[in-house]
Amino acid sequence: MLSEHNNHQPIAVFDSGVGGISVLKALHHLLPNENYIFFGDSQNAPYGEKTTEEVRRLTSARAQYFMEKGAKAIVLACNTATSASAKLLRATYLDIPIIGIEPALKPAVLHDYGDLGRQPRILVMATALTLREEKFLRIYQQYQDKAEIISLPAPHLVRYVESGLIGSAEMQQDLSQLLAPYVAHPVDSVVLGCTHFPFAKNDIKKILGEDMLFFDGAEGAARELKNQLNLRGMLSDSTTPGQITFENSDPSAEHLILSQQLFEAQI
Description:
By secondary structure, the protein is an alpha/beta fold. The chain folds into two domains: 4-101 and 218-264, Rossmann fold; 105-215, Rossmann fold (3-Layer(aba) Sandwich), CATH 3.40.50. The chain is built from twelve helices and nine strands. It has helices at 4-7, 21-30, 52-68, 79-92, 105-110, 128-132, 134-143, 155-162, 169-184, 201-208, 218-231, 254-264, and strands at residues 11-15, 36-40, 73-76, 98-99, 121-126, 148-153, 189-192, 213-215, 244-248. Strands 4-3-1-2-9 form a five-stranded parallel β-sheet, sandwiched between helices. Strands 6-5-7-8 form a four-stranded parallel β-sheet. α2 links the parallel β1 (11-15) and β2. α2 (21-30) packs across α11 (218-231), α3 (52-68) crosses α4 and α9 (169-184) crosses α10. The longest helix is centred in the first third of the chain and has 17 residues, at 52-68. The radius of gyration is 18 Å and the shape is globular. It starts with a helix and ends with a helix. Mean pLDDT is 94; it is low at 1-5.
């Protein structure tokens, strides 16, 4: 069991940009007395258009940085980084939890849609790399006979969130074009397979309908983090809210300001 001092060491939360703040919000909601470092690699975003080797290199370098900062856990708040690097990091850092995130396809498939008279149609929005990685393909193959699963790469959506253009006319126009086939032939739910995408949920609702069901992996990652910390005796015993530190690879202050705004935003 770690000492009391070490139990108060920060949880590192890493994303290719600022989208992983949607995961940070879920972590903080479940474990508000923990300390967090959120690092957004906005200078290298989006990861979804890079090779697997590039993503592994970037993620491994950041993990080493977190270890030097004394992190007691690392949360990969990025579907692409999880797909490419989680297994490698777990084999490298055996003493701390490495928590990943994945498209919430399983809960979307197992959801009770009532009497549809057919299989549910599920739209999975993610980056191209996430959709072609083994991790997603394994889940897809497991559930493809239980639902009509539609994969939809949406890389431009990452850039809108990174640029603080959520809700802009330009973003809405691009989304309208991207989602037009699913207005004509509606889906029953949407899996947000990139941690940036929950910030676009309201814009997607305007196109697909206010009653659209959404699934993402943030809450599942938060529960897994709590479970792993508890198993290791690493949960903070503080009775006061923890500190949240925002860092970014972009040397300008723009993304740090955006990070705080996104953390305070309702999604």
